[in-house]
Amino acid sequence: MLQQIARQQDIVEIAPQGTPSKAAALAHVVEQYGYTYGMAYRTGFKNSLVQVRMYRDPQPDARVREAATITAHPQAGNGGTLPGLEQGSLRPLPEAVAAVAVMKDLVTFDVMAQYVADRSQKVKCYLACAVLTVLMLIDKSPVEAVASGVAAALLCTVAFTVGANRRGKIAQRLTDAGFLAVRDGQGSQRFLRPGQQLPGHTNPFAA
After folding, report:
1. What is the DSSP letter of 178?
2. How many C-beta neighbours within 10 Å does residue 190 have?
3. Helix, strand or coil for residue 21?
4. What is the SS3 assignment for 61?
5. What is the DSSP letter of 139?
6. How far is CA 93 from CA 27, 68, 89, 147, in A?
């Protein structure tokens, strides 16, 4: 990660992390070197890891932030301190706790998009429940088969509702923090800081 920053790459990919909290802590570090949050998504075996992509921020204040960070942490690449984190740890310092919490919300909101069911996903899930009921009729009583199908459908409904409610609460926190809700090219909801546009491949503020 620090090598990518040192090369002043337009895009920095944070190595897959086990939790949104760890990914957010590292994203906060990258942000201090003049980058801005781009996106996060699940990856790895059974989507168990979180990958974050950061884009180089072309705004003048980003270069000021970068210069200040390099001056304050000259040995970051040699085991020295990292901005906003306790040395040798991904635990945020008191002054960075709020910023890392916001970053965690951005990361979590994006990775949860994979589990927010749209109309087609709901249809597939309930269709699977119906198929399960039919298959169980082969060697189970009608009552048992129907009960199993209904139970599976209820579990799907609860999962959809809990996921939507949790993502809704995160969206509200981001809105309260001053972020603006937009739709990307695929129609997915994203949150941007005022004045920021959706990231492009080379220009992170390209329309």
Report:
1. T
2. 20
3. helix
4. helix
5. T
6. 14, 17, 10, 52
Pairing of strands 11-17, 35-43: unpaired
What is the full per-residue pLDDT of the chain (207 aa) written as tens digits? 999 999 999 999 999 999 999 999 999 999 999 999 999 999 998 889 999 999 999 889 999 999 999 999 999 989 899 999 999 999 999 999 999 999 999 999 999 886 665 566 667 777 777 877 787 778 777 877 778 777 877 777 777 777 778 889 999 999 999 999 998 877 788 899 887 877 654 444 443
Query: For residue 35, what are the β-bridge partners?
Result: 56
**CA gap 185, 183 in Å, rounded:** 7
Rounded Cα gap, residues 92 and 188, in angstroms: 30
Contact in structure between 171 and 109 (CB atoms under 8 Å): yes
Burial of 106 (0-12, 13-18, 19+ CB in 10 A): buried
Specify the DSSP class assigned to residue 93.
Answer: P
Q: Which amino acid is residue 183, in one-letter code?
A: R
The pTM score is 0.78
DSSP 50: E
Radius of gyration for the chain, computed over Cα atoms and rounded to the nearest angstrom = 21
Angle value at C-alpha 200, between 194 and 201, nearest 5 degrees: 150
User: In whole angstroms, what is the distance from residue 27 CA to residue 19 CA?
Assistant: 12
- Strand residues in 3-125 grouped as ranges (E): 11-17, 35-43, 49-56
